[in-house]
Amino acid sequence: MRTDAVTLLAAPLPAPSIEYHLLAPMLIVFGAAVLGVLVEAFVPQSFRFRIHIGIGVVAIVGALVAVGLLSHTQATAMMGAVAIDGVSLFLQGTILVIALLGLLLIAERGAVPRRPVRSGPGTWRAVAVLDRDGADAFTPQASSVPGSAQELTAVRAGLVTTEVFPLTLLALGGLLLFPAANDLLTMFIALEVLSLPLYLLCGLARRKRLLSQEAALKYFLLGAFASAFFLYGVALLYGHTGTVSLPGIAAALQREPDDATLAVLGMAMLAVGLLFKIGAVPFQAWVPDVYQGAPTPITAFMAAATKIAAVGATMRVLFVGLDALRSDWRPVLAAIAIATMAVGAVMAITQTDVKRLLAYSSVAHAGFLLVGLVADDAAGIAAVLFYSAAYGLSTVGAFAVLTLVRDSAGDEVTALSQWAGLGRRSPWLASVFALLLLSFAGLPLTSGFISKFGVFAAAAGAGYIPIVIVGVVCSAVAAFFYLRVIVLMFFTDPPADAPVVTAPFATTLVIAFSAGATLLLGIFPQPLLDLADSAATLLR
Asked: What's the alpha-carbon Rg for the chain, to the nearest Å?
C-alpha cells in the first residue's frame, strides 16, 4: 500500500495544453503590461511617457490583428478554460478599439496647457523642461496628500504618473479574458484582473482629488462585496454539479433537471457580481459617483469597455452554463431589464451635472442590452453584439467631449448650467455632442436607432412584447433629457463666466472618430450587422 502511494506521488503531472495562438490577443496585451512595469522600474522618468504610448499602441493594434487572424475560429484553449468563438472574438475586437481610443484620451496632455515652475527648492527637475505640452488628467504623485506641500512640489517638478499605462493594459487584458472565460474560476480571475487596476485608476484624478479618492474607495468596497457574491455562487454551483466548467455545469443540470435548488441559488449569487459590473438595477448605485469622481479618460474607458465585457460574460454564463434554467432566469432578467431602463431614464432627468447625467444614461443602456439577452436566441445575441459596439464608440466620444469644456482655472466644467450657449462659442463641439446624445436617444440615422431596433425586435420575436413597450417608453423619457441638453447648448444665453473650449489633437481625433462611427453605423449599418450575425455563435 505504501509503495503504491509513493509511486502515485512520484508520477509526473501531465502538462496542460496551452494553445498560444488562440490566446494571442490576451498574451500580447498582458505581455505589454509586464513590459510597461519593467519600463517603470528601469527607464528614466523623462522617457517613460513616450515609451508607454508606443508600447500601448503597438500592443493594442497587434492584439486587433491577432483577433482578425482568429476570425471564424471555434475552439477552446487552456484545457477548456477559455472559449474562442464568434462572440468572444467580436467583443474582444470591440473592446480593443475602445481601448485604443481610451489610450489616446489617457495620453492627452494638451487640454490644459501649463508652464513648468522653475523656482524654489525641490521644484525643479529636468522632466519639467521636456514636458511643455501641458498636464494630463492624472495626479503627479498619487502617494501625496491632496492639497499638501508634497503635492505642490510634485506639480511644480512636472512629475507624471506614467503607471496609468501598465495599469490600463492590465485591466484591458482582464477585459479581453472576461467574456471568453469558459469556466467560472477563470471568469473570477478575469474579473479581479480587470477590477483591481480600475480601482486604482479611479482614484488618480489630478483635480478634485478627494472626490476621486472617494469614488475609488466606493468602487473598491462595493466591488469587493460583488466579487465575494460571485465567488460564493461559484462554490454553490460546484457543490451542485461537481465542476466549474460551463459546459460541464450545463451537462450536469440536464442530467438532473428536477433538483436544482442549489444551482438556482448559485446562479443568483453569480448574478450579483455580473450585474454589478454591468451597472444594472439594483446594483447601479456606484455608477454615478464613480463616473463623476474618476478621471474622465478612465470614466470613458470604463463606461464602455467594462459594460461590454460584463455583458459578454453574462451571456456566456446564461446561454452556455445555465441554459437548462432558462425558465428561472428569463423572467427575472426581464424584470431587471425593465427596472434598469426605468431607473436610468427617470434618474437622469433630475441630474444637473453632465457627467452624472451620462452615468445614469449608461445605466439605462445597460437595461437595453439586457433586453437583447432576454430573447435568448441568435437574433438576440447578434443585436447585443451590435449594440455593444455602437454604444461603446458613442460613449467614449461623449466623455471625450467633457474633457474639452473647462473653466479659467483649467477644471472640467460639468455643471449643466455652465453648458448654456456652448453652441454659439464652439458650434463644432456642441454639434458633435448633440449627435451623440441623439444617438443615445435612439433617433433615426444614428447607430443608437439601429441598436435599439435590433434588441427590441429580438425581444418581440421571443414573445416579450411588454418589455418592448416599456423600452420604447423609457427611450421617449430619455429623449427628453437629451433634448434638454441640446436646447440648453443652442438656444440659451451663455453665463457670464462661460467656460472655454480647447481642441487638442488626440482628443479631437477620438471625438471625430466616435461621431463618424455613430453616423456611419446609423446610415450604413449592414456590414456590422452582418458581422454580428455571423459572430452570434457560442461554443457550448
From this structure: 24
pTM above 0.85, yes or no: yes
How many alpha carbons fall within 13 Å on the CB side of residue 359?
A: 22
Residue 158: strand, helix, or coil:
coil
Instruction: Report the run of H or E that residue 315 belongs to, with start and end.
Output: helix 307-316
Partners of 353 in the β-ladder: 415
3-state secondary structure of 73: coil
Reported as a single tens digit per residue, the pLDDT across 274-316 is 999 999 999 988 999 999 999 999 999 999 999 999 999 999 9
Distance of CA 45 to the CA centre of its chain: 29
pLDDT surpasses 80 at 222: yes
Name the region of 80 (left: φ>0; alpha: ψ -120 to 50; beta: rest).
left
Determine the Cα–Cα distance for residues 359 and 365; give it in Å rounded to an integer: 10
Report how far apart the first and last C-alpha atoms of the chain are (Å, whole number).
42
pLDDT at 83: 92
Evaluate whether 395 touches 300 at the Cβ level (below 8 Å): yes
**Model confidence at 372: pLDDT above 60:** yes
CA atoms within 13 Å, Cβ hemisphere of 499: 28
DSSP string, 193-227: HHHHHHHHHHT-BSSSHHHHHHHHHHHHHHHHHHH
d(C-alpha 271, C-alpha 178), whole Å:
15
Which 3 state secondary structure label does DSSP give 540?
coil
Q: How far is CA 59 from the centre of its chain?
A: 18
pLDDT value for 495: 82
